[in-house]
Amino acid sequence: MSRIATITVIGLLLAAPTLPAHAQRSGGEAKPKKLYCWNQGKERICSDALPQDAVNNAREEFNASSGLRSGEVQRTLTAEERADAAVTTAQRQLDAAAEQTRQRTEQAMLSTYENEGDLRRVFSERTGILDNNVQTASYNVASLRDALVTLLAAAGDRELAGKPVAEKQAQSIRQRHAELVAQRRMQAAFEQQRRALDVEIEETLQRYRLLKGVAADPQA
């Protein structure tokens, strides 16, 4: 593996080997060689091979023959960032469903819904989405907790036997713990959204009762 720190892409291109003539005439059968550039701390690294410790870094890729940038790869998200992205995506879905619900209820509340049961069914889609999110997050938390307990028990057994905990085993424990923390955050966020939906449903029902001039439906 070659790594050249703080070198320009042009310099790498000039130093890159030229394909044999028969490969150039073969109609592009040989796969174009790539050059990679990424940041490592405050240093800019460019190399014709990507080391293992840079695989998760954001990087730019260049065609070694033409010197043109051929692609860009974003850095790998952490478990916490993936959890935040999942919550954000779920929130967008719920916001879109909420807007549709508000439009339907405000425009047709009096003329369409004969009783509270009809009105409650408007919220069934959002309720189903959130209930599923909460159940999935709860399952994931339980699974990750069990896996972490198993890893910790195995590490404890090694220590009791006078053996050191292997680095790979310690890394697995840290990874499972980070995933568990992220899933717990997701679970808490989904549960909060579910409680907020219950409040919205009750406020909508109160609005409906006011417009209808009726009391709460004891059968609802």
Please summarize what this structure is.
It is built from six helices and five strands. With 220 residues, the chain is an alpha+beta fold. The chain is flat.
Walk me through the structure.
By secondary structure, the chain is α+β, with helices and mostly antiparallel strands. The chain folds into 2 domains: 4-73, no CATH class; 79-212. The protein has 6 helices and 5 strands, in the order E-H-H-E-E-E-E-H-H-H-H. It has helices spanning 9-15, 21-24, 79-112, 116-120, 124-160, 167-212, and strands spanning 4-5, 34-40, 43-47, 59-63, 69-73. It has a 5-stranded antiparallel beta sheet with strand order 1-3-2-4-5, covered by helices on one side. A hairpin with a 2-residue loop joins strand 2 and strand 3 (43-47). Helix 3 packs antiparallel against helix 5 (124-160). The longest helix is centred in the last third of the chain and has 46 residues, at 167-212. The termini are far apart.
Largest sheet: 5 strands, antiparallel
Average per-residue pLDDT, rounded, comes to 79
Unreliable stretches covering 5 or more consecutive residues: 1-26
In total, the number of strands is 5
Derived structural class: alpha+beta
Strand-residue proportion: 5-15%
Q: First CA to last CA: what distance?
A: 70 Å
Shape: flat
Query: How many domains, as an integer?
Result: 2
Helix content: 55-70%
State Rg: 29 Å
The number of helical segments is 6
**Cross-sheet strand order for the largest sheet:** 1-3-2-4-5
N-to-C order of helices and strands: EHHEEEEHHHH
